[in-house]
Write a structure and sequence with these properties.
Elements: H1 33-37, E1 52-59, H2 63-76, E2 81-83, E3 99-101, H3 109-116, H4 118-139, E4 149-150, E5 153-157, H5 160-175, E6 182-185, H6 186-192, E7 201-205, E8 208-210, H7 213-226, E9 230-232, E10 239-243, E11 246-251, E12 254-263, E13 281-291, H8 296-302, E14 309-312, E15 319-322, E16 328-333, H9 344-357, E17 366-377, E18 383-385, E19 393-397, H10 406-418, H11 429-432, H12 444-460
Parallel strand pairs: 1-2, 1-12, 2-9, 5-14, 12-19
Antiparallel strand pairs: 3-8, 4-8, 5-7, 6-7, 10-11, 11-12, 13-16, 13-17, 14-15, 15-16, 18-19
Helix pairs in contact: 2-7, 2-10, 3-4, 4-10
Length: 462
């Protein structure tokens, strides 16, 4: 805790970005395993207490915002001011599953080809792969120690029809993109990786790194401040105005004037922050749990020979992995609304999924359970975008649950845009088009309920 900040306000388990007036101010973190085991957060600069000026203001201190501050300092000598409503990385960046994959957004490479054509899809693959390398470069940097678990990504098929589908995608990855994925039979999966009861086979991708999310975020924080950035916690941005050729960001403790602004607030974007983002992301809840450490007998019974990141082929997918201390983490979709988020049935959905996948773990103690919001764009792809060429305001949003690794690259790209530097592949659609709006934004949750019901029926059909 920073010495300048007041004691934190209670955590609000029912916060909902579609109805709440901002994520609060100086609230406690969600009760995640990551926060419980990350140690004391590094010092921040405390809340804004007076008016100040900066060359670049960044709204949001998650992975993207802190990476942006790091690259602004490292590549351009710009010492940014980062503004955070609560504690550092309070939102997505300390509530996720820690799965760094060679991906961004929710679409497959085949869907990229269908949407944009082969040339753009190949350049998108190059951009995302470079993003994974950017992420790995930061993970390997001092002072970051986030318990990386490398080796790749297992995409486990829970039905034969799903195995056929991902096997076809694996062929595209190999033949079109030169990305050496391989199909695993159920027997190969059990022999070399894990004995998951639902699995009929899998695809193995070579790039994938699991991390301790909070330790990664706190490492980013220390790196950014060591480079000269200021990171102000308990300083929600209530409004962004354009005045006399500069941006004016109003916080409870004082006004921050900036020549340029980067917005990296994820699913925790305040409704009144800026009209530029109204209705452009759909916040979706995701639940997660962590068990007690598995015994050696339980490890043998579940056949865990890997600590790689794992997802399954459900539309409402499960994501899971064995942690360094032999606990099992698993997550999936959750409630529709914040007011319903704490209902026991959402935790039970995860427990049931854990039991189906690993019957020997029936009844295992669940020691941590939490949920958080994911920023899903309406076309399932993120954007790092400057809405007005005449103004230096850039946002990076819409990662759709695949932001752990690509957020590093998104922060770098946002830094380059804010500094006025061109970069290779800047003409890709994720950099040249706005996050799309939705014509039925006020009614999205009605549609979400219907889709969840349909997805569940489709996912579980045999």
């Amino acid at each position: 805790m920073n010495m300048h900040a007041a004691p934190p306000a209670p955590y609000d388990p029912h916060y909902d970005p579609l109805v709440s007036d901002g994520p609060g101010r100086n609230r406690q973190y969600a009760p995640t395993y990551w926060i419980a085991t990350a140690g004391t957060p590094p010092e921040s600069d405390g809340p804004v207490t007076a008016g100040t000026a900066t060359e670049v203001a960044i709204v949001g201190s998650g992975y993207t915002g802190l990476a942006c501050a790091i690259f602004l300092a490292r590549e351009f000598g710009i010492k940014a001011t980062v503004l955070e409503a609560n504690g550092v990385a309070w939102g997505c960046s300390t509530r996720n599953g820690g799965q760094g994959q060679n991906a961004s957004g929710r679409l497959t490479r085949s869907q990229w080809i269908k949407r944009w054509g082969l040339d753009v899809a190949r350049r998108m693959h190059a951009e995302v792969t470079e993003g994974f390398e950017t992420f790995e470069e930061l993970v390997q940097s001092s002072p970051i120690d986030c318990e990386p678990q490398r080796g790749g990504h297992l995409y486990i098929a829970h039905r034969q029809r799903n195995l056929d589908k991902i096997a076809a995608e694996s062929k595209v990855l190999n033949d079109v993109f030169g990305y050496a994925s391989r199909v695993l039979s159920r027997e190969e999966l059990r022999r070399d990786f894990v004995d998951e009861a639902e699995a009929v086979g899998a695809v193995h991708e070579p790039l994938g790194t699991g991390v301790h999310p909070a330790k990664l975020a706190f490492g980013y924080l220390k790196m950014a401040r060591d480079l000269g950035a200021r990171v102000h916690t308990a300083s929600p941005v209530l409004e962004i105005e354009r005045r006399d050729g500069a941006f004016v960001l109003r916080t409870p403790g004082g006004v921050v004037k900036a020549d340029a602004v980067g917005i990296a607030t994820g699913a925790y974007t305040s409704l009144g922050l800026t009209s530029l983002l109204a209705g452009r992301c759909m916040p979706i809840l995701s639940n997660s749990l962590v068990t007690r450490p598995l015994t050696q007998a339980e490890l043998n019974a579940t056949g865990f020979k890997t600590r790689e990141v794992i997802t399954d082929t459900r539309t409402l997918r499960f994501y899971y992995r064995l942690l360094p201390d032999n606990r099992l983490q698993i997550g999936s979709r959750s409630a529709i609304t914040g007011v319903d988020a704490s209902h026991d049935r959402h935790l039970q959905l995860l427990i049931d999924g854990l039991h189906r996948k690993f019957p020997p773990l029936q009844g295992i103690a669940i020691e941590y359970s939490w949920w958080g919001w994911v920023d899903v764009s309406h076309d399932m792809m993120p954007r790092i975008f400057r809405p007005d060429p005449a103004q230096k305001l850039v946002y990076a949003l819409g990662f759709g649950g695949n932001g752990v690794s690509y957020s590093a690259q998104a922060g770098r790209r946002m830094a380059q845009m804010l500094a006025g530097q061109r970069f290779e592949n800047q003409d890709l659609p994720i950099f040249t088009s706005a996050l799309p709006t939705h014509p039925f934004s006020p009614f999205r949750r009605i549609g979400q309920r219907m889709l969840y019901h349909w997805y569940h029926l489709r996912d579980e059909a045999r």
